């Protein structure tokens, strides 16, 4: 079914619903909508802009124009629903097309409503368990204010950032060090420059994690948890060089004997061999998936 036909069908379904029937639609992620007629044009940069771009980003990048057109298109679908028995709740980042389309409708700014809770969480985590004796309360409140400002209501980002700051405290960081670290941390979770990728890059087990991801991604049959458990031991004891791991001319055989309540069974899996060029492409794909 084409996109115009789908939009027409959606409108007709709503139109034929009797007034006595009450409908409520909850639609999340309007800002991640992709134009169907340009589906093949969404490369890595476009997907990054689509998922993490701001109003300023859409002005700066040429592809922002047609992505913004897509936002206007999806907004108009819900904006044009006028039936009194149909209620709609949509969620999105505060991008210009949605601000304009829904300017006159009631709305909740969730990140404004959760500010106090986030501030209390950050302050209590950074000043609890004896930490209050080493840091000034007012200065720590300023750090909590900064976290709240950058979080935009995303609790997961807050939790990860707080854990990074607590690690710094355990290492003896001063308040100035914590402020500097907070400023350098990515303001988003996903994407090539997001907090997830930073955590992977900084992880002491990064090479091992990449090898395990490769095993899962390219094995003929997805390995079960038993195999991954023993694979981790095998990879940890092997050469930590990623290229050496994938450039090995022999396939890696993983085997283990696992005892359960009924019987002893053997687990054996094979890992496909990759050339260096294949490995480079695979690592790029892995980073995009992360």
UniProtKB/TrEMBL annotation:
Top-level lineage group: Eukaryota
Name this polypeptide is given: NACHT domain-containing protein
């Amino acid at each position: 079914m084409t996109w115009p036909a789908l939009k027409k069908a959606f409108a007709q379904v709503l139109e034929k619903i009797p007034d006595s029937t009450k409908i409520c639609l909850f639609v999340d992620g309007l800002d991640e909508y992709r134009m169907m007629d340009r589906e093949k044009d969404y490369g890595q940069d476009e997907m990054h802009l689509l998922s993490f771009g701001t109003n300023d980003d859409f002005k700066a990048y040429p592809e922002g124009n047609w992505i913004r057109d897509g936002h206007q298109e999806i907004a108009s679908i819900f904006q044009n629903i006028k039936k009194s028995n149909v209620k709609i709740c949509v969620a999105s980042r505060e991008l210009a097309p949605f601000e304009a389309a829904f300017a006159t409708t009631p709305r909740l700014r969730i990140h404004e409503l959760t500010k106090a809770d986030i501030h209390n969480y950050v302050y209590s985590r950074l000043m609890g368990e004896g930490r209050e004796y080493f840091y000034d309360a007012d200065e720590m409140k300023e750090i909590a204010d900064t976290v709240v400002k950058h979080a935009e209501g995303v609790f997961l980002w807050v939790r990860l950032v707080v854990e990074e700051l607590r690690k710094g405290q355990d290492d003896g960081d001063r308040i100035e060090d914590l402020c500097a670290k907070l400023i350098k941390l990515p303001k988003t979770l996903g994407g090539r420059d997001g907090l997830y990728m930073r955590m992977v890059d900084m992880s002491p087990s990064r090479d091992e994690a990449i090898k395990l991801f490769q095993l899962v991604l390219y094995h003929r049959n997805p390995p079960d948890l038993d195999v991954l458990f023993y694979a981790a031991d095998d990879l940890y004891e092997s050469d930590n060089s990623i290229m050496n791991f994938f450039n090995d001319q022999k396939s890696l055989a993983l085997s283990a004997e696992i005892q359960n309540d009924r019987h002893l069974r053997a687990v054996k899996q094979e890992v496909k061999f990759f050339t260096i060029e294949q490995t480079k492409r695979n690592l790029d794909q892995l980073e995009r998936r992360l």
